[in-house]
Amino acid sequence: GAGVSQSPSNKVTEKGKDVELRCDPISGHTALYWYRQSLGQGLEFLIYFQGNSAPDKSGLPSDRFSAERTGGSVSTLTIQRTQQEDSAVYLCASSLARGIRGASSYEQYFGPGTRLTVT
Amino acid sequence: GEDVEQSLFLSVREGDSSVINCTYTDSSSTYLYWYKQEPGAGLQLLTYIFSNMDMKQDQRLTVLLNKKDKHLSLRIADTQTGDSAIYFCAERGFSGGYNKLIFGAGTRLAVHP
């Protein structure tokens, strides 16, 4: 597609259930990021994938959160045993490779997000 | 540590200028960004400025950077109702061998007639 897509757009789940959120980055973008946006908060960095390198998981809030990226393209963010505080909009972004000079080459293109509500 | 702060809300009258302010802490930041988020949508890059610049103008948008005070501002001239959105300031850090953006909490701009 032309942009970053995410699915589902909305997800309502019961506390304690597992959820999977999907991100399809822009074709050719080797870098993929997951962020969380809670109400009234900024963007909280969760995890970063770059090519075949080991992902940077430093932003994951707990071991209930995990993510994978298959074939260097589609990524899935999994939240196990969801809690009410997990309710937020989860945003995915992709960009060209790291380490390239110039801000424009580093521009992150964002998907529309998945709104997760844990009841 | 890295931190970006913004005021949370700004209300302006249509046709007036809007000024959204941001402060950051990482003095090594090379690029600073302004993103716009319209309701129900993801973030879209509006403009950016390199740290060796003081000002950048792009049509109705003017970015001012005071590197000494680590202060960034976005001025929108002739603000229109379509400018109503959340505006995020971000600084570019470098950690673990890659570039990372640190975002502020966002400033909600409300434009009223």
Note poorly predicted spans of chain B: none
Strand residues, percent of chain B: over 45%
Structural class of chain B: mainly beta
Query: Would you identify the regions of chain A where 5 or more consecutive residues have pLDDT less than 50?
Result: none
SSE pattern of chain B, N- to C-terminal? EEEEEEEEEEE
Provide the gyration radius of chain A in Å: 14 Å
Write the layout of secondary structure elements.
The complex is a heterodimer of chains A (119) and B (113).
Chain A: E1 5-7, E2 10-13, E3 19-24, E4 31-37, E5 43-50, E6 65-69, E7 75-79, E8 88-95, E9 109-110, E10 114-118
Parallel strand pairs in A: 2-10
Antiparallel strand pairs in A: 1-3, 3-7, 4-5, 4-8, 6-7, 8-9, 8-10
Chain B: E1 4-6, E2 9-13, E3 18-24, E4 31-37, E5 43-50, E6 55-58, E7 61-66, E8 71-76, E9 85-95, E10 98-103, E11 107-112
Parallel strand pairs in B: 2-11
Antiparallel strand pairs in B: 1-3, 3-8, 4-5, 4-9, 6-7, 7-8, 9-10, 9-11
Question: Keyphrases for this structure?
Answer:
heterodimer, A: 119 residues, mainly beta, 4-stranded antiparallel sheet, 45% strand, B: 113 residues, 6-stranded mixed sheet, 5-stranded antiparallel sheet, globular
Account of the 3D structure:
Chain A is mostly beta strands. Helix content of chain A is 0%, strand content 45%. Chain A has no helices and 10 strands. Chain A has strands at 5-7, 10-13, 19-24, 31-37, 43-50, 65-69, 75-79, 88-95, 109-110, 114-118. In chain A, the strands form 2 sheets. In chain A, strands 2, 4, 5, 8, 9 and 10 form a 6-stranded mixed β-sheet that branches. Chain B is mainly β and 113 residues long. Chain B has strands at residues 4-6, 9-13, 18-24, 31-37, 43-50, 55-58, 61-66, 71-76, 85-95, 98-103, 107-112. In chain B, the strands form 2 sheets. In chain B, strands 2, 4, 5, 9, 10 and 11 form a 6-stranded mixed β-sheet that branches. Chain B has a 5-stranded antiparallel β-sheet with strand order 1-3-8-7-6, with no helix packed on it.
